Amino acid sequence: MCKAEGVTRRSTVPDHIIPLAQGGEDVDENIRCLCEEHHDQVTREEFGYRERPEFGADGWPVPPGGGRKSFGRRGGNRR
Questions:
Q1: 19-78, pLDDT tens digit by residue?
Q2: Are strands 54-55 and 31-34 parallel, antiparallel or unpaired?
């Protein structure tokens, strides 16, 4: 099973906990099994890739998936 975020999903990719490129060793103690999605996510994070947020025409960030979130009125719910 995938060892990331408590996910119950078939793990298909061995992942080096400390990447070989960063001095990790190719030994059992340095390997965990992840699903392909989590392996890609972890690898991007380890090597400094960050997703750039998208911005709408109004200048506000667009949430992932393109939907708009309602943040309510400024100042909250005052009574």
A1: 898 899 999 999 988 888 888 888 888 888 777 788 889 989 888 765 554 444 444 444
A2: unpaired
Query: Among candidates 43, 32, 45, 31, which has minimal Cα distance to 1?
Result: 32
Q: Model's pTM, two decimal places?
A: 0.52
Buried b (16+ CB within 10 A) or exposed e, 36-54: eebbeebeeeeeeeeeeee
**Cβ atoms within 10 Å of 30's Cβ, excluding its own:** 15
Question: E-strand spans in 1-79?
Answer: 13-16, 31-34, 54-55, 61-62
